[in-house]
Amino acid sequence: MRTCTMILLLMLSAGHVPAEQPANLPRGILKLTSAEPLKEMSPLMHASYLKNTGVEMFRGSWVMAASASTLLIKPGEEFAPNGAYSPDNGRTWTVLPANPDFDGALPHGYRREAFPVFVDPVNGNIFKLMPSLDTPGLDPLVNEPPIALEAYYLRYRVSVDGGKTFLFDEPIVQKGKTPENPFEGVYRGKNGIFMGDVGSQIIRTRSGRIMIPAQACKLGPDGKLSSPGGGFTYTDVIMILGRWRDDNRLDWEIGQPIEADPSRSTRGMIEPTVAEMFDGRLLCVMRGSNGGAKDPEYKIPSYRWVSVSPDEGLHWSTPEPWTYDDDTPFFSPSSMSLLLKHSSGRVFWIGNISPSNCQGNHPRYPLVIGEVEPNTLDLIKGTVLEIDTKRPDESGLNLSHFWGFEDRETSEIVVVGARYSADYNSNTPMVWRIAVQ
Predict the structure, then answer these.
(1) Is the dihedral of CA 221, 224, 225, 227 positive or negative?
(2) In this structure, what DSSP letter does residue 42 have?
(3) Which among 122, 57, 109 has a CA at the least distance from the CA of 86?
(4) CB-count burial class (<10 Å; 0-12, 13-18, 19+) for 186
(5) Which region, left, alpha or beta, applies to residue 322 given φ > 0 means left and ψ of -120 to 50 means alpha?
(6) Given this model, what pLDDT does residue 16 score?
(7) Of the candidates 51, 174, 196, 247, which lies 20 to 30 Å from 417 by C-alpha distance?
(8) E strands along 227-323, which residues?
């Protein structure tokens, strides 16, 4: 990785020499143990373990409280106002009523989207992030309305009793800022800040920072939305960093934005996924894009992008194409991905890799998993396993919008999602299981 030398110098100057991966830890062998088609979406979608040990699980609402009278419920999904609880590793679930009902009196057109919850592994608090729109009269049936790029902002809720009740519902605001200007460079009504896909999972660092991998639209010199790469959107990655207070709220700050070179990624940096490595460095993997007005023939290479922080998210290296451990880059569409830390200490990446240069978002197959080399932070080519891909009789396929976690009973990596048609109008829900041998 070309950023490693710079990062090493930063760490040495700070008196921090990266540790080596233990020599007695053999390389993991990944094996697909099952690929189960379902009649409806698995209740494991967006589920998280509730405690440091054991198999109790919690999941937040899967759908959007768009107004007091309208809820967007997709086929095969159920609405759980506060969430749902499972005592037995996701086999059975109990729906938890909203308590209190923060969304019941929202004006028509307001939205509170339910991002998957984060359960703090140390204090057990449930942190519920709510990408939000306060847009009176906005049609609740409009998916991804253009005004969202200007108006998105973030709220949060905290539960200290396993999701039975939530203490408050408040906007996330950087210390010293205001709800109208919640973060440096972000202004409500001008440029939105929001989450990517669910691969942008929240983590807690070893020093106790809560990290939200978010993205914000870019403003130009005229104070309006800018797209310097010529794509239909353009975002910088912004890491929101929180510290718990005694009242179960958090004090917020942000790290240095991760900014793309618009000549190399036409839509900026998108949908970050983050993992803390064994030596304390933070690895951030992002989707970029090609295509758009400045690259109509898709000549820009469709790389996956990587940035590294030596100081728990405050500063980040310039994003560069992610490479295999033989220093060769690989092609990947503009799609979500997920870094997943396994109980063995290994870090795995799940996403799409293509044999040839992609065109924007496509093709979103095959879906693969591979191990991250712990010292160089490259993707180990020899570990990459194909989870699923397009069949000869299929005209197209989208293997994206998935959820991943480690099953505490089996130590398998569980990937929950669907085999979506090319137009996303139909799907076959799936659960894939991968053994780490």
Answers:
(1) negative
(2) -
(3) 57
(4) buried
(5) beta
(6) 34
(7) 51
(8) 235-244, 250-254, 270-276, 282-287, 304-309, 320-321
Residue 242: per-residue pLDDT: 98
Q: What angle do CA 178, 179, 181 make, to 5 degrees?
A: 65
Residue pointed to by tokens 């070893």: 206
Confidence of residue 66 (pLDDT cuts 50, 70, 90): very low
Which residues are within 8 A (CB) of 250 and not within 5 positions of it... i.e. 6 or more apart? 156, 210, 242, 243, 244
> What length does the chain have?
437
Q: How many Cα atoms sit within 13 Å of 78 on the Cβ side?
A: 17
Taking only the tens place, the pLDDT of each residue in 175-220 is 999 999 999 999 999 999 999 999 999 999 999 999 999 999 999 9
The 10s digit of each residue's pLDDT in 135-160 is 999 988 888 899 999 999 999 999 99
User: β-strands 210-217, 203-204: how paired?
Assistant: antiparallel
User: Can you list the positions of beta strands (E) in 218-355?
Assistant: 235-244, 250-254, 270-276, 282-287, 304-309, 320-321, 338-341, 347-352
Cβ neighbours of residue 164 closer than 8 Å, sequence gap 6 or more:
82, 96, 99
